[in-house]
Specification:
Blueprint lengths: L1 H13 L3 H10 L13 H8 L1 H25 L4 H16 L12 H11 L1 H18 L2 H23 L6 H17 L1 H9 L6
Helix pairs in contact: 1-4, 1-5, 2-3, 2-4, 3-4, 4-5, 4-6, 5-6, 5-9, 6-7, 6-9, 7-8, 8-9
Length: 200
């Protein structure tokens, strides 16, 4: 019963729509009607300013970290439960029950998750993200590539940096999380292909 409860709590933590709430409070508007329609930091910053975007980014990352730490505390030595909670908090952010299952794209929440589970992997993906955004000015492209490479970096960390007896739980969490994030960017991918994606 406890493992299921941990996963459910993680989902509801993820579904707290910080970006939506910040824009609603500041502008009285629904962020989902602007720009990409997402509730994440990039769309919030375009609609409500950089400060609002940064606050959204931090809060979305913190809920990912908190969900994993909560799962670790309640499910010590149960890596599969922690991995399931990691997926659940990302899914909660992307498909929040409070907003008709229309949320953000999971990037910041995923960063919060893997900062706890595989910090070196996040650092490597972060370097890649910064390099791509600096060269192309496409935040979406940097996010997609960074998310897609997280499973590789998680595997490399678990094998060469911090060897673990069974890397499967967190590797699967990384793969599922990456697939969810790339799926959430499908509109961005189409716009990138057409050359109509917004730059920073």
């Amino acid at each position: 019963m406890r493992p299921l409860l941990v996963v459910i709590i993680a989902y509801f933590l993820g579904s707290i729509p910080f970006g939506y709430l910040i824009v609603r409070r500041k502008l009285g508007d629904d962020i989902r009607r602007s720009g990409s329609g997402g509730t994440g930091a990039t769309n919030v910053s375009r609609r409500a300013g950089k400060t609002a975007g940064i606050i959204t980014l931090v809060l979305d990352a913190l809920k990912g970290s908190f969900a994993v730490l909560m799962a670790k505390g309640l499910s010590a030595n149960m890596d599969w439960v922690i991995a399931a909670a990691a997926i659940a908090v990302i899914a909660g952010h992307m498909f929040p029950v409070w907003l008709g299952f229309r949320g953000g794209k999971g990037v910041a929440t995923g960063v919060g998750v893997f900062v706890i589970l595989a910090p070196i992997a996040v650092l490597c993906a972060g370097v890649l993200f910064v390099a791509i955004v600096s060269l192309t000015r496409y935040v979406s492209l940097g996010s997609i590539v960074a998310a897609a490479t997280i499973p590789l970096f998680v595997w490399l960390q678990s094998v060469f940096v911090e060897p673990v007896p069974d890397p499967r739980p967190f590797l699967i969490a990384a793969i599922v999380g990456a697939l969810l994030i790339v799926f959430a960017h499908r509109g961005n991918i189409a716009r990138l292909a057409r050359g109509t994606e917004s730059k920073i």
